Amino acid sequence: MTITPAMPQAKKRPTRTRTKRVSSLPTIRLSQLPPSHIDLRSPLDAVLVCVDCGTWCPITGMMGRTQKIVPHHKGEAGTATPLRCRGSNRKVIFDITIVEWHQALVDAIAEASSRQATAVLPKPFSPQTDRILRARAERTLAGRLADWDAVLPGVAAADSNRRKMPAGDAPTEAPTVPLTTLHPAR
C-alpha cells in the first residue's frame, strides 16, 4: 500500500501520560530509596525501581506539577494475562537534588567496594593430627591388607563370644522365669 497525500497520517503523541489518576498508596520520597535504585543522570528522563514489583520505571510529569511512576505491568512482558502493578501512577517527591543523589551514589559504591571477602586461612593442625594424616598418606594397599589380616582373629573371637548362650535359664539374683501360663480367675 502506498502513501498518498490524501491519506491521513498519525500525529506524534505527547510523551506525558494522559491519565490524571493518582495511586492511593503513600508517595515515594527519593531520599528514602537506596541511591542505586534511582537514575537521575538525565533529569527529564528520570528512572527509578518500583518499590512494589522491583522493575525500573520512568517518572512522568517532570515538567508538570505532579511527578508519578508510569503505569506498568509486573512480571514478564508479553504474557497472556498481564497484571498491572499496584505501584503504577504512584506519586514521587523529589526531596534530594541531583548533586546529593550523585554524592550518595558515590558513597554507596565506595562502601560496597570496601566490603571484599577476606582470604580464609585453614586452621593449623595439631602435631598429633599431622602425624596421623602423614601416616595415612604413606600407607600402601599391602600395608592396609596386612593390618586387616592382623585384626581378623580378634574380630572372629568377638563374634564367637557373642554367639554363646549364657548358662542357666535365669540370672543368678532374680526369681526364675515362670513356665506355666497364668490365667486370672474371674
Order of helices and strands: EEEEEEEEHHH
Rg on CA atoms, Å: 41 Å
* Portion in strands: 5-15%
Determine the N-to-C terminus distance.
109 Å
Helix content: 25-40%
Going by helix content, strand content and strand pairing, the class is alpha+beta
Globally, the shape reads elongated
Largest sheet: 4 strands, antiparallel
Given as residue ranges, the uncertain stretches (5+ residues, pLDDT < 50) are: none
The protein's oligomeric status is single chain
Order of strands, main sheet, comes to 2-3-4-5
- Can you give the mean pLDDT? 80
Number of helices: 3
Care to count the β-strands? 8
Describe how the helices and strands are arranged.
Elements: E1 28-29, E2 38-39, E3 47-49, E4 56-60, E5 68-69, E6 73-74, E7 83-84, E8 92-93, H1 98-114, H2 127-138, H3 141-163
Parallel strand pairs: 1-8
Antiparallel strand pairs: 2-3, 3-4, 4-5, 6-7
